[in-house]
Write a structure and sequence with these properties.
Radius of gyration: 29 Å
Structural class: alpha+beta
Number of strands: 10
CATH topology of the largest domain: Lipocalin
CATH architecture of the largest domain: Beta Barrel
Strand order of the largest sheet: 3-4-5-6-7-8-9-10
Helix content: 10-25%
Largest sheet: 8 strands, antiparallel
Number of helices: 1
Strand content: 25-35%
Length: 159
């Protein structure tokens, strides 16, 4: 007789436990369904810039830009293409009347905007920890990354 009561109690506990688990499962599932209705990249601002992709509005250029790839300025740019050893290239966009940054497009696929840094001679641009440095003097340039020169013997013909 004691076995019947124990069996009934175990059965009741299993049924109640299953009900609680089912309730939690359906509650979480419906919450997830609401979240899945959000579109990735659907966070456009008033100008249509997608913040989650790093874009922000540049009033000077009247377009969405990624600040680490392109400097936001109304200054007319001057672009120079440097041909380097190993068939590498650097496309550098300078802003002569607002010379705070240089925008670089490298043949290895990197695209970045680098702030001007202190230099005794020539133009030097470096990120905050100096792990990336672009040097330019006259019609020559080179790049160091983490202390290693990765673009060497670069020369341009500026027209």
């Amino acid at each position: 007789m004691n076995y019947k009561y124990i069996l009934i109690i175990i059965l009741i506990v299993l049924i109640l436990g299953g009900g609680v688990l089912a309730y939690k499962f359906w509650s979480v599932d419906s919450a997830n369904k609401e979240k899945t209705n959000l579109i990735v990249g659907g966070d456009k601002d008033a100008h249509g810039c997608i913040g989650s992709a790093g874009y922000s509005w540049c009033e000077a250029k009247k377009t969405c830009i990624r600040p680490w790839e392109e400097y936001c300025t109304a200054t007319t740019p001057k672009t120079a293409v440097f041909i380097c050893a190993g068939s590498k290239t650097i496309t550098a966009t300078f802003y002569p009347t607002d010379d705070k940054y240089v925008d670089l497009n490298l043949s290895d696929g990197k695209k970045l905007s680098v702030p001007r840094a202190i230099s005794a001679s020539g133009a030097r641009y470096a990120n905050s920890n100096e792990s990336f440095v672009f040097w330019n003097k006259g019609d020559t340039a080179f790049i160091t990354e983490d202390g290693v020169t990765t673009f060497t013997d670069c020369i341009t013909n500026i027209n």
